[in-house]
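Practice record 12: protein with molybdenum atom.
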Amino acid sequence: MRISHLCATACLWLATAAFAQSPHAPTPVPGGLGKLAGAERTVLTVQGPKGTQTWTLQQLEALGLHRVSTQTFWPDDNGTYEGVLLADVLRQAGLEQAPFVRVAAMDGFSQRIPRADWNKWPVMLATRKAGAAISTRNKGPLRIIYPRDMAEELRNGIYRLRWVWLVNRIDTQGQ
Ligand SMILES: Nc1nc2c(c(=O)[nH]1)N[C@H]1C(S)=C(S)[C@@H](COP(=O)(O)O)O[C@H]1N2
Ligand SMILES: [Mo]
């Protein structure tokens, strides 16, 4: 138990160190960005072992904004995104060790994202594109952004499904 815990800690540290070295990894935005219009509205419900949590945009961004410039699977969507690390959101709900989470969207779409993804890569829950809020028409206010340029593997089509947009719920349903 202790040894496996040590390993988990070391592996996490190694993974974090590797993220930091990639020029394509999200980087922290010190001090955050100006407040968004509508930042007080609830945009996300997370259900985990710690119960059900709701999040406003402002509360989410207070977890620590990160920024990444990335290619996507959709040329029009390429660009710079700001948001929080999915792992940080999951930790607040006690879900960081879950085998997977289900990320669900306003349009009824959902996908399972396995733990390996948020352990290996700084997967983001984006709240902004180039500093501005993302409208629902533009797949916001929350969307999953993989740091796709960090790894060749992330170009594989299996990850395309996991770029859920219009995200409004995270849970472990279907386990
Ligand atoms: N909210 C939401 N996210 C979504 C989807 C969706 O229908 N709704 N489609 C998924 C699927 S099945 C794929 S393949 C891509 C959609 O890519 P496309 O718009 O190029 O078909 O995004 C994923 N994210
Ligand atoms: Mo798809």
